[in-house]
Amino acid sequence: MPVRARPLSPHLQIYRWQIGNTLSIMHRATGVALALGLVALAYWLMSLAGGEDTYGTAMHVFSSPLGWLVLLGWTFSFLYHLLNGVRHLFWDAGYGFERTSRHASGWFAVLGALGLTICVCWFVWHGAHT
Amino acid sequence: MSLRSPLGRVLGTGTAKDGTGHWWAQRVTAVALIPLTLWFFFSLLLLPALDYGTVRTWLALPVSSFLAVLSVGVLTYHSYLGTTVVIEDYVHAAAAKVFTLMLLRFLYVLFGGASIFAILRVAFGS
């Protein structure tokens, strides 16, 4: 029996690149990155429950150059997904659909996440050197 | 009374029958995660050090372990809801889709369960 093709929403390459779809794609990408972060969180918590030696090994992994880089990526992903998620919640409540407010809240989410990531970096760096 | 023909219904063009449940759960967990993740993030950031003794003492506090269990539980569920949609969007072959979704669900229970079990071990000191 032939299965009728279901209607699909337009694929990514159909859209002209602009802030709206870029932020939407970033929201999904950071969400997937954070899902992978849950595996690292489980590993870190298990190492803590395992004792001083296993925790030391885990912290050694996380404090390697690659570890720092990945943690930096997760920090930005978390902050961006949080701010843009609040933006989505406002839309769900029926606010902020106008072109100007859409763009303003979008820039607020990206620049806010970048700014907060820099603040966190500065705070961690400062703490590590006092 | 349904206005759809019986043939139309069996041709596989019906609804998924779960309505807005998924959408709503995604929003409720999102709202819950605003305070939970901010608490977790800033608690770790504001600890004087991240050495074994400091982190273990902090997580063993009843309020910390309780909120950490809630955070991991809600995070796992929210993340599961999100990545399920990603799989549904990009994996089209029926068998591969069912297999991936089932594997995804197993992995979330595995890692979420491991995290919660680890927090409880720290909380109850075993």
Describe it for me?
The complex is a heterodimer of chains A (130) and B (126). Chain A has one domain (20-128): 3 helical TM bundles of succinate and fumarate reductases, CATH 1.20.1300. Chain A is built from 4 helices and no strands. Chain A has helices at residues 19-50, 52-62, 65-92, 99-128. The longest helix of chain A is centred in the N-terminal third of the chain and has 32 residues, at 19-50. In chain A, 21% of the residues are buried. By secondary structure, chain B is an all-alpha fold. Chain B has one domain (20-124): 3 helical TM bundles of succinate and fumarate reductases (Up-down Bundle), CATH 1.20.1300.10. Chain B has helices at 6-10, 21-46, 52-60, 62-90, 94-124. Chain B is elongated. Chain B starts with 5 loop residues before the first helix and ends with a helix.
Fill in the keyword field for this structure:
heterodimer, A: 130 residues, mainly alpha, 3 helical TM bundles of succinate and fumarate reductases, 4 helices, 78% helix, extended, B: 126 residues, 5 helices, 79% helix, 0% strand, elongated
Distance between the termini of chain B: 59 Å
The chain-level structural class of chain B is mainly alpha
Q: How is the CATH topology of chain A named?
A: 3 helical TM bundles of succinate and fumarate reductases
Instruction: Give me the secondary-structure category of chain A.
Output: mainly alpha
Molecular shape of chain A:
extended
CATH T-level topology of chain B: 3 helical TM bundles of succinate and fumarate reductases
What is the helix/strand order of chain A? HHHH
CATH architecture annotation name of chain A: Up-down Bundle
Helices of chain B, by number, come to 5
Q: How far is the first residue's CA from the last residue's CA of chain A?
A: 72 Å
Number of strands of chain B: 0
Rg of chain A, rounded, reads 20 Å
**Main sheet specs of chain B:** none
Beta content of chain B comes to under 5%
What's the count of strands of chain A?
0
Second rung of CATH, namely the architecture of chain B:
Up-down Bundle
Give the overall silhouette of chain B: elongated
Specify Rg of chain B, calculated over alpha carbons.
Answer: 20 Å
Summarize the main sheet of chain A. Answer: none
